[in-house]
Amino acid sequence: MELMSKCTIVWLFIAIAVAFIQSAVFKCWMDSGNSVIEFQCKDTEAVGTKCPVVCSALNTDCYLYHASKDLVRVTETEDQKIVLKHKDIPMLTKEYTQSLLPVDEEPPEVFQDMLQGLVAFELNGRDNLDILSLLWPWHNSSSIITGQNSQLLEQIVRFAHNDEYKLMQLYSDLQLFPRVLGTCGDIYVVEHMTLLLDRPLLDLFPALTDTCHVTRSARRILHYLLHLSSVLPLHLCDLQWGHFGADSAGRVRFVDLDAAFSAEKMAATQRETVCSTDEDCDFFDCRGTCDVAQGRCLGGVSDNVSNLCRQLVWARAPLLGAQRRLGLLAAVLSEQQAELLERCARSRTAEHAQQVAEVLEELERRTCAEPEWETRDTDTDEF
Length: 383
Description:
Oligomer: single chain
Number of strands: 12
CATH class of the domain at 195-375: Mainly Alpha
Order of helices and strands: HHHHEEEHHHHHHEEEHEEEEHEEHHHH
CATH architecture of the domain at 195-375: Orthogonal Bundle
Radius of gyration: 23 Å
Strand order of the largest sheet: 1-2-3-5-4
Largest sheet: 5 strands, antiparallel
Structural class: alpha+beta
Shape: globular
Mean pLDDT: 85
């Protein structure tokens, strides 16, 4: 009886902690969003199409876990939910950004070429694009330069240094990420996504979640990653469960691109990194390899599918210990299935993707009364 009483107290404490973490009080506790909004909106001439919405978004709902940004805030318009985002980039001083602006009588091509250079790593070999129109679709590109609106041009230069904004805009036609709806100063507004696995402490207590929902979400995430690799080679190095969402039509989107890199950019970054062990070459969830003889990291890192496998079977939270079977699906995996996911995780490639897909389909069949993939129209978007 005493043991049961202690267990009850522990679970009660966990329930209270989870409820507190879900509350707006905790989520907004260390959030600096209000000061960011106030700073952007104090300038009555702030550039952007969304300033009325942004400037009325004080004290709205905060997002949990966004250490790389100083603002991620949810608000609503008359017809939709939206998310406000802001990332401070220290190098973007007034002097620096103004030095990149076109000067009088300079051909428009000079500014376009400069923008091309700022997004070169994100282009993945695509040439002959109107970069200015992609980065700033709310104005005609030729009128932007010829109009010599220095405030607008400076804003475009600033966003051309924001990795997430660049990827969302350059690849908006692929429908992989939330759409950028507009801006106000340095704040950009994106469409709201319903997070697939929006659960506090998910990495610590995966067994406390709805098993059917978790297995279904894992299968959908795998299909998304396979589709991504076929249309846009991109390393998602911060593969948190809370970074996968679904749009209003239910299609999976990746919502946080601060640690997303093209293969070319990732390779360039790795080759500049000094190392003595493979761990020195790891970048969040992307696992690198050290050339010990040269003391530099090799160019490649682990594939997104391999990174997913690692988190499905092993603990993501460091305090739980590396390579312990405490990952998202560890509690429902058979020994054979767990060994397959471990091989997938260690391979650092997508070579086991088909087998992993079969495992996730089997788990969904076992844990859900009606597996989603069996009832879906084959002509619809699978993920």
